[in-house]
Amino acid sequence: MINQPQPRTSTDDRVIGDVIMQMKDITLRFGGVVAISSISFDIREGEIRAIIGPNGAGKSSMLNVISGFYRPQEGEIWFRGRKRPAMKPYQVARQGIARTFQNIALFEGMSVLDNVMTGRLNHMNPNVFLQAIWKGKAEREEVENRERAERIIDFLEIQHIRKTPVSRLPYGLKKRVELARALVSEPSLLLLDEPMAGMNVEEKEDMSRFILDVNDEFGTTIALIEHDMGVVMDLSDRVVVMDYGKKIGDGIPDEVRSNQDVIDAYLGVSHD
Amino acid sequence: MPDQVLFGIEVVINGLMAGVLYALVALGFVLIFKASGIFNFAQGVMALFAAMTLVGIQDGQVPFSHLINAIFGTKIHHFGWEVHSILAILVTIVVMIVLAWAVQHFIFKHLVGQEPIILFMATIGLAYFLEGVADLMWGAEIKTLNVCLADGVCLPQGINGFLDATTFNWFGYGLFIDNLDISATIVAVILVAILVIFSQYTKQGRAMRAVADDHQAALSVGISLNYIWILVWSVAGFVALVAGIMWGAKSGVQFSLSLIALKALPVLMLGGFTSIPGAIIGGLIIGVGEKLFEFLVGSMIGGATENWFAYVLALLFLVFRPQGLFGERIIERV
Fold first, then answer.
1. Which residues of A touch B223 (CB under 8 A)?
2. Which residues from chain B sit within 8 angstroms of residue A93, using beta carbons?
3. Phi and psi at residue A170, in whole multiples of 5°?
4. Does residue B180 belong to any structural domain of this protein?
5. pLDDT tens for residues B278-314?
6. Do B203 and A101 touch (CB under 8 A)?
7. What is the pTM of this model?
8. Chain B residue with minimal CA distance to A129?
9. Which residues of A49-58 are buried (b: 16+ CB within 10 A; e: fewer)?
């Protein structure tokens, strides 16, 4: 039933591994409104998995369920072969699931570097006194955390704004800083909520390239949400299509593209 | 003339040191407001509670003794021992941490996402509740606070300020400075240094700054808001303890101590509610300002200007620079 993902390009040497996360019959209601209705799908290690659908389809709700911001009324979430108990967002983050937000949630008052460094918080020594006096293990860790942050900053080509306060950056760069902060925590699953929303064509191309590079270079498993079908098809290994809270398609991009339900859903609503 | 100048200098120095005490109280407000958006009306009462707890532990008082005696018909008041200042301070810190936990667990955990005015009213309730608890626990009489860090190394008593002052000789003129004010300044500088190191270089401090900046983003990098809020209330409790010790040594531990919170309000309007350097500099400006104003203008208009000068200054600031000297800029987007 599960389609083995096809290699994206002929030169692709990525390894798509086992299922890392499995959603089983997830149902999420807000009062009488059913945002997600009994949806199941899985995410494999090393792949780029897209969740697409028209506006209001329940994509963001699904991402919020995975990252612990919403708690589904029904269904199970399996992560790394274990059923996940109800968790708070910070616990999910500590498990190694990092995310970005559609409306960008950055620490506006901090510099880009400081923002990225917060992504390393869970890799830091919790001993207050060692850190305060800057000695021994704490010092080595600080140096290592700093190096990793710089590496990600280089990788996403934001070195030139390292010391700039985030509040001064344009939208497109903020999105990139947010990606850097999520990435620096070395997540085993990276969730991107509409990474290309509100961007111009050039910025979209940049962001697509970064997503592909991240996946190639670090082997990061990525699940992303997008309502623009064109962008997603070139990017992802497998696609889940949602409409009105239901799953109407699941498979490799070519399959999904030719799926009649998907075509109807997309022709039935206006999108840009 | 040199006499006048010298006296002026003395006034400024006195003002600076009074300002340090205002700044200590304002600091507690800023910490909590930054991290959680709660304007903690109870900060002054926390200082009172901390000072009373410290004195009570030092003197070996039995907590809730009136209550216990009333219920069981006993007549216990004291354990009959005296506790060393350092140990008593440590125990008081633990008490303030427990208080922080209780405040978060029983009140603010249930008010997450509520309007600021509701959070504010909750802190008013907390202030009166805490005042009542302090009364019940340690009694209402005025106590003197003697803090000795080692044999002979004691915090000077402000009550004997006139006798216990250091005289600097300067061009043959005497300059009188209260010893307590000098110690208060040193302690405040150390405290601020500790806070800066804590918030810049430790994991917890960074997490605190992150929460102060953006809750959602903080959650997404794995920070537990609940934990950070308890931490912030604990740090504010610690700052309250330091402020309580200083004010308590100056004027005795009594219930009017909780009113110093009102003196911190103009400091906050000057310095901005979200800025730690603002709280310190605002405190100094108010301290020096009110002493100088009293010295230069006070006698012409009948004196007692110290009572209102700070508030008038704050009002002027509200009109011309509502965000304070260092507060985050208020930008309205249309």
1. 90, 121
2. 219-222
3. -70, 160
4. no
5. 888 999 999 999 999 998 888 888 878 888 899 999 8
6. no
7. 0.83
8. B202
9. bbbbbbeebb
